[in-house]
Structure prediction request, 146 residues.
Amino acid sequence: MITTVKYPVAVAAIFLWLGFVLAISFMEAWLKFRAPGVTVPIGLGIGRLVFSALNKVEWILAILIFINILYLKTAVFTIENVFFFIPLLLLLVQTTWLLPALDVRANLHINGQDVPPGNLHLYFIGAEIIKVICLFTFGISLFKFK
Prediction:
């Protein structure tokens, strides 16, 4: 069996992106609160810093993927690429709405103010789950088995 990869840079970037999201969103995010001496305000401060950095890394990887697809001069808007554009759209929503809204809530909590209940974390987790599924599916779809 011969395996070929149509977009080698994209495949590397996809699985790197997938690894970052899995490691940070599904491991670091909740583990930091279990460390001795880490209070909720300290954990939230760390989380804001880490998720801001993750967001920047995600944009760099998404741009690399998009450039690799464009560079090979193939159709960009295909049914196969939907699994790339869904995480891209979710990343846009996270960057423009979810992360800023979560930052406001974190700042309120860090400053000792009351934080009203909300579902923003659930929306963020849902977006991360969808991103992981789509990125994995898209990454696998770029391998051609003969």
In short: The beta strands are 3-5, 143-145. The radius of gyration is 18 Å. The mean pLDDT is 93.
